[in-house]
Amino acid sequence: MDMVNVTIDGVSVQVPSNYTVLEAAKQAGIKIPTLCYLKDVNEVGACRVCLVEVEKARALAAACVMPVSEGMVVHTNSKKVRDTRKATLEMILSDHNRDCLSCIRNKNCELQTLAEEYGIRKVTFEGVKSPSVYDDKSFSIVRDGSKCVKCGRCVSACKKQGIGVLSFLNRGFNTSVGPAYDISMADAPCIYCGQCIVACPVGALHEKEETDKVWAAIQDPSKHVVMQVAPAVRAAIGEEFGLPIGTRATGKMFAAMKRLGADKVYDTNWGADLTIMEEGTELLNRINNGGVLPMITSCSPGWIRFCEFYYPEFIPNLSTCKSPHEMEGALIKSYYAKNNNLDPKDIVVVSVMPCTSKKTEAAREQLVNADGLKDVDIVITTRELARMIREAGMDFNSLPDEGPDQDLMGEYTGAGVIFGATGGVMEAAIRTVADILEEKDLPEFEYKAVRGVEADIKEAELTLGGKNIRVAVAHSTAAARKLLDAIKDGSAPEYTFIEIMGCSGGCVCGGGQPQVPAQKLMDIDIRAERAKALYEEDEIMPQRKSHKNSQIDKLYKEFLGAPNGHLAHELLHTTYAKREIYPDSVLEE
Amino acid sequence: MDLFRAHVLVCCGTGCTSSNSAKILEQFEQQIPAQGLEKEVKVVQTGCFGLCAQGPIVVIYPEGVMYYRVTPEDVAEIVSEHLLKGRYVERLMAPKHDGAQAAEKTSANDSNFFKKQMRVALRNCGNINPENIDEYIAHDGYQALGKILTEKRDPDAVIQEIIDSGLRGRGGGGFPTGLKWKFASGNRGQGITKYVCCNADEGDPGAFMDRSILEGDPHSVIEAMAIAAYCIDAHQGYVYIRAEYPIAVKRLQIAIDQAREYGLLGENIFDSGFSFDLDIRLGAGAFVCGEETALMRSIEGKRGNPTPRPPFPAIKGLFGKPTILNNVETYANIPVIINKGAEWFASVGTEKSKGTKVFALGGKVNNVGLVEIPMGTTVREIVFDIGGGIPNGKAFKAVQTGGPSGGCIPASLLDTPIDYDNLIAAGSMMGSGGMIVMDEDTCMVDIAKFFLEFTVDESCGKCSPCRIGTKRMYELLTKITDGTGTLEDIDALEEVALSLKNGSLCALGQTAANPILSTLKHFRDEYVEHVVDKKCRCHVCKGLTEFYIDPEICKKCSLCAKKCPVNAITGEVGKVAYSIDTTKCIKCGACIENCKFKAVKKR
Amino acid sequence: MGKQKMTPEEMSAKLDEVLSKYKGQGQKALMATLQQAQEIYGYLPLPVQRKVADALDVSVAEVYGVISFYSFFSLKPKGENAISVCLGTACYVKGSQALLDKIEDVLGIKNGDVTKDGKFSISACRCVGACGLAPVIMVGDDVYGRLTPDEIPGIIAKYKEA
Fold first, then answer.
1. Given A168, A171, A581, which is nearest C60 (Cβ)?
2. Matching CATH number, A93-208, of 3.30.70.20, 3.40.190.150, 3.40.1500.10, 3.30.565.10
3. Which pLDDT value is given to residue A589?
């Protein structure tokens, strides 16, 4: 890349010629404020907060989209720049619901931070607010238009996901963001991946909070509360308490969860190990019995909804396995209840997930058992868990390191842990399937070809037990779209097994994970950093293959029988159904 | 070709079509054979003559007699009197003005309306049948393109010719056209996809120059676009035109089809190896799409949101490819520059603004219509000489140019010679060429509010200063016109205006405050009157106007009281003069409309 | 209105014809597709949007986003007689706002609405370019110029009978 010389506020820097002024300033150690900018997602120059003065230019320029050029001289701190930025901020605030104290993003809001940094003490230009919608009808996502700053980060994030359920609507002052007709997210073909939420700089999009329900269950003496936590949560929850991105906070997380007062705290990794047993067996059955191939994983509820809405023709390819926390929930209300002499009706299963789509998944009619009980009762996100920890008054960082409860469903392997990163389910499955097909305990079991975030579609070809197995891994629904289209038009090779995760990077970057300010995302790929924490945990686990989980072994022997057996089928497998996109009924009141 | 002794030209522009010129054309086509004149007289439907207020217009050559406000019933008389007997129909020869202005009989060439004009871009409008390519060719059409292609002229030399002519963009910004072409001309002959686009999304309220050119002379635009394409090595063009202009769209499509048929569009034009084709893209009612980046996004099928520059369209434009985008009037000048030379073109106009400019003259002026003047003509000449002054003996107050991006020029600046720079210095801008005349009855605060309402409506909503700032300015103006404004509101207006100017993403937002800033500059006293004296001197702002009945004039007929929707008027028929209860009055104006004696007044 | 009313089946067939012309062209064909669809239906209801989205492989929200951006596109059916009042500058200074007020008054509906019997709808439009006739209204394709508010009831009455 050619280099160019630019001078910013008197500081000379040499930067690649494809840099923007914003990036060059960062290199020069100068911070330019941003609001609508989100690296690689939303680079549009719309909010006008990052305006700078470029010498010889006719007008102020948006630093986030202004390319550098040789000899460019930039001022980021002139009176004109400061005055304009401040007036612009005041205008944005004049059309913003400023109930900051009761906002879910209080103290974690990019607009609030800007208002503080710019010393906004009053909003001069008060006037009417633009029309907005408050929508909390879905199980997963709440849309509060009164907080929306029309930055477009969610629209771009949704588009980047290859879904486009959010769009700018209307124009001018009446511009809003939402699905067609501004209908509820509950009626739109939304997969609830929550990427819009993590992209939102303010409180206009957030998860539907359910912490009150969890507190109520804990406080109810007639309820037996079992909490479980997904692998990806440990890779990010530390961020909520000021720890660096990528910190593995497993020990403190379990310590905190136990102190919240649940009757039992488990790790969904146990359910992940079980998933491998069921899914691996299902795969081998499909291979051996001429079943539908490629088989595609079913752990990611965002991906499942995507398939049901947009690629229903692939429903027969979906593994019938429930996702790990649903499997674990089903067994808590059967196996665990039986062992502890509990009436399943009294058990409340709470899943702590990095995911907003899991909230809607838990409400699926296919995941309600014969007695009318849901496998999982409440799903909260990583962010909600952090809020509960704060509300309980705990000092997270000084908690001791602890683990999940060890009885019955407490053990897990490294294979379960890596479920939280893209390629993890695939790698965990291969670790087990390879041992079965080769009929030995293979010493080499790290499949690095399916790891990593550089490519959105990864492939590998293996020969196991004389069988040629071709696998692919896609992360983000946009990648899924690409892969499925290639399968449809015949340009893809014949895959045996495919892992698809709804979010780029996998669960570690799910829609329920901590929001990272856009400025921080300029320097760091959180997908890779958070994944590192999981691979680190994998490496230190005594067992790293799911079939070596002794409690799972015991489960089959004492309760379920064989993998894919009759009871396993009843408890651990599910069905899917095509969904209509914008049926006419969405417009009926 | 048959030789005709007389030609009857019937204006079929949108203005005249709206007042029934199609029927007139039909009548001529029936009446002429009825009098046995079909071998001697030819009827031609043409584009706009310019004098729209007096339409429908019929011109008869060789005499050049112009008939105004012709009705279908008049046709028989024109045919039997003028065409058969050679006697002019005098009663149709005087322009009809709203006021009691002295009317003069005119022929097409010597009226004041035409005398001070110089028709370059409009050269063929009203003179040829726009639906017949042969007529364009007969008027030197496609000669410029033919010369360039058959002589295999160096594209750079052609671009240089355009640069030397001093032609600047007629769409508003005034960027030198030749330079635009030059920036897009890199890497010719390397198979790079490029586009040539024409901006015919004329959105300024009160401007219809581009429409008239496309209706009256569509081939001039096609020819120019082909020349531009040759210069930068592009092979596809698009004309982005308002869907609200059905006649222009139809005539342009006919012209494109005819040009294709004649081999003037398509593969291997003039056997030169150069290929170029053209398609129409319809706009869908968004003023912002007149902004070049928004226009291109719209062609791409997206919301018409402007995108930041750089990258400039010449480097990365339509579909990410190098693109030239010029306005209709700009293109209409190109063939003339090639035919007559850059030097000729540069000899017209002022030092920094060359050539002519077309204005759509409208509002409170007698000769509403389309005028083309050499740059440097004064505002006074346009309004009073060409425009024939203000109707009904009212006093001139201001002229608004540049539409919602422009400003108002007061009487003190009437002698400003019009060019790009002078208009900006006067607080307005050239814009695309709308020129609205305002008289003493026009409230300048209300006019500012009118433009802001337009901008609020038309802001795309992408960037925050424009999305919110235009609304806030409109709210402040509403306060002021309602009578609840304060002096602080005027300061706040100026503050928001400045931040919009500095902070907005595109020209729409950057200039949105101009109608306010220019009226504040020249008519600040009217603003102050609104907020301090709570008075609107023009009685336009309802909140500041009171209705009353002059008891001296009132004939006690009770009609006003009957028509009043809120029973605010009381009195007794024949006995007690009627009066208005101002606390009940909603100022709907029903009483004023219905009073036959003009007894209801405003104060 | 001049145009013959099509049956729903005819409209659907006509739309399919349009869509087959643009199918697979993606977003760049969106404007033209919507314009032609609106020509068929008079407006752009959800089922039409769904079909367009499907044919061009763009999301329904995106299609709606484009429709709601451009004032030419309509989500509601227009009245049999669509009245548009020009609010361009030339017409405005000559009193077109009073015409609009009068029409609203006479029809008892607001700008942007349709009368209950579906006979009339009102919209304010930007300059139609007939500035010489200012102030101007259009009823369907008929242009009325140099109007005063008291001429409005008569004009509307003409269409009421039709």
1. A581
2. 3.30.70.20
3. 64
